[in-house]
Amino acid sequence: MSACQPGESVGAFLCQAGQVLRAAAIESPRLEARLLLGHAMGATPEQLLREPGARVPAQAVARFGAALAARLARVPMAHILGRQGFWTLDLAVSPATLIPRPDSESLVEAALEALPDAAAPLRVLDLGTGTGCLLLAVLAERPAAFGIGVDVAPAAAALAAANARANGLAARAAFLAGDWAAALAGRFDLVLSNPPYIESAAIAGLMPEVARHEPASALDGGADGLDAYRSIAAALPGLLAPGGVAVLELGQGQRQAVERLAGAAGLRVRGCRADLGGIDRALLLAAG
Does the keyword Metal-binding apply (predicted)? Predict the structure, then answer.
């Protein structure tokens, strides 16, 4: 993919990769070129910027070419790197899970604000846990809390457990493969969920990184995008402890519809937090 040869400079590789990525309409081509070359060389993007005249070793050239080809095929950058930052955590990712997104940090903020006692021994449940990002972010901020993450995909539950171990949180987290809360008993002080909420017919029109490479089970919310919310709303009255709160991620424009579903299930809306783009993102619910 690259015309650059082993022994040429970091700067030459970055220049060519940036041009190729820009021509393919990849956003932030210069940054992505640094990430790809850093991945191939085992260096940080900052190191590459500091040493543009450094030579790219032969063993890194093939890795760089493969990574660049994958990105041009619109494989998500997180899948190429194998990692994604979320909150204060470094998380492994895989095609079995949705890639954690900054918008979802709004749920963590809303949960911590709703349950401000940092020493409280909270019982936390994360439905559709994926990488475990929501649960693990809350556990990192609430050292007396214990949490359970559930995902329909066994590979996702296994990845979340590995992320808990890697971030020093395994002693306070357990992960299960199951259908929402069907296998659970007991009540929780906090229930988190980023459910699938894309309308089935809209998935094909999403950006190719999402439509081609992220799991349909984590995206497809049914014909109206609300199937998962119906299941979760029906389960929440039996899951929330007295004084407990649920925080659900919303898709754009879904607030009113999900609030109606919650009300019909006997739940009370406690508020809604917008993400950095001003979109209603984190809906807070309590038992009626």
Answer: no
What is the distance between the alpha carbons of residues 108 and 174, in angstroms, rounded to a whole number? 19
> Is beta strand 280-287 parallel, antiparallel or unpaired with respect to 267-274?
antiparallel
194 is in an annotated binding site: yes
Residue 208 annotated in ligand binding: no
User: CA of 119: how far to CAs of 89, 122, 140, 145, in Å?
Assistant: 20, 9, 12, 8
Q: Is 132 annotated as a binding residue?
A: yes
CATH of domain 94-287: 3.40.50.150
Asked if 26 and 68 touch (Cβ cutoff 8 Å), the reply is no
State pTM to two decimals.
Answer: 0.90
Q: Please, is 75 exposed, middle or buried when counting C-beta atoms within 10 Å of its C-beta (0-12, 13-18, 19+)?
A: middle
Structural contact between residues 201 and 169, judged by C-beta atoms closer than 8 angstroms:
no
Domain ranges of the chain: 10-73, 94-287
196 labelled as ligand-binding?
Answer: yes
Per-residue pLDDT of the chain (288 residues; tens, 9 = 90+): 445 565 578 888 899 899 999 999 998 999 999 999 999 999 888 888 888 888 888 888 889 999 999 999 999 999 999 999 999 999 999 999 999 999 999 999 999 999 999 999 999 999 999 999 999 999 999 999 999 999 999 999 999 999 999 999 999 999 999 988 887 888 999 999 999 999 999 999 999 999 999 998 899 899 999 999 999 999 999 999 999 999 999 999 999 999 999 999 999 999 999 999 999 999 999 987
Residue 128 among known ligand-binding residues: yes
Confirm whether residue 87 is marked as ligand binding.
no
Two structure tokens written together for 141: 């901020």
Nearest to 229 by CA among 160, 178, 180: 180
